[in-house]
């Protein structure tokens, strides 16, 4: 197993050639940690998967899929687990000293110790807390922006048909025809970002990773010719140059550049992803060099990219 230290590693598109515009190689480069994956108060891939996991400093917050409650862990083995909210079902985010989470369709807030709980929005689907604003879908599916300063919401004339995300002043969303669109933070300048259907997507640095027809792709935008096929997958989590994914009833971990090399006959033919479990994870999360995943019984597991260590937390 290869380890990744220091700065996060991301796969890069290299050379497009002639009219076909095909990839000729994939190279590695370093992306600063503060740029990678952060779309709001959590990582893009975590929010893509429902926001059940939030890593923040020495703390890990999580919600168990299909169960109620928000838990906080201090320590590696989970022995210091505390239930900080009796209800709550995902979209965990942290901004400053405030932890945000969904409770059914309400957006709630509390401090790190679980005190001072309050309702922020009575109805907010897939909320993203971005600085002084919250992006969310209302009862009609319209994308809205709530201003903390003005204490009011504004409709953005955008109606995602699936997931949406926020990065570097732009909103990315699944729109008409299942394709990924982008627009300004106020909903203006809407345009197609990826001219392929995407069942789900995650942003990581300059790249957008998405699932299409049983394959994981990577792109910086454009047509299908500009999308690099990585590996077969039905679900995934991404962190820097690493990926955890479900495929054919099993859970795998792999290095993006190596998987892309094998798929696109660009060398590295001896590389094999690590088979982590003989089952597919229910959902995923990531923080720093750790991937987290839940099994069908609701138990939380962690996988350390650097050491290869696996750990099942106590329920």
- Low-pLDDT segments, ≥5 res: 1-37
Rounded to an integer in angstroms, the radius of gyration calculated over CA atoms is: 19 Å
**CATH-assigned fold name:** Neuraminidase
Number of helices: 2
The total count of strands amounts to: 32
The main β sheet shows up as: 4 strands, antiparallel
Helix and strand content put the structural class at: mainly beta
CATH superfamily: TolB, C-terminal domain
Q: What is the CATH top level name?
A: Mainly Beta
Helices and strands in order:
Elements: E1 8-13, E2 16-17, E3 22-23, E4 26-31, H1 44-48, E5 53-56, E6 59-62, E7 70-74, E8 82-85, E9 93-95, E10 98-103, E11 106-111, E12 118-121, E13 125-130, E14 133-137, E15 143-147, E16 152-155, E17 164-167, E18 170-174, E19 179-184, E20 191-197, E21 200-204, E22 207-212, E23 215-219, E24 227-232, E25 235-239, E26 242-247, E27 250-255, H2 256-263, E28 274-277, E29 283-287, E30 290-294, E31 300-304, E32 310-312
Antiparallel strand pairs: 1-4, 2-3, 5-6, 6-7, 7-8, 9-10, 10-11, 11-12, 13-14, 14-15, 15-16, 17-18, 18-19, 19-20, 21-22, 22-23, 23-24, 25-26, 26-27, 27-28, 29-30, 30-31, 31-32
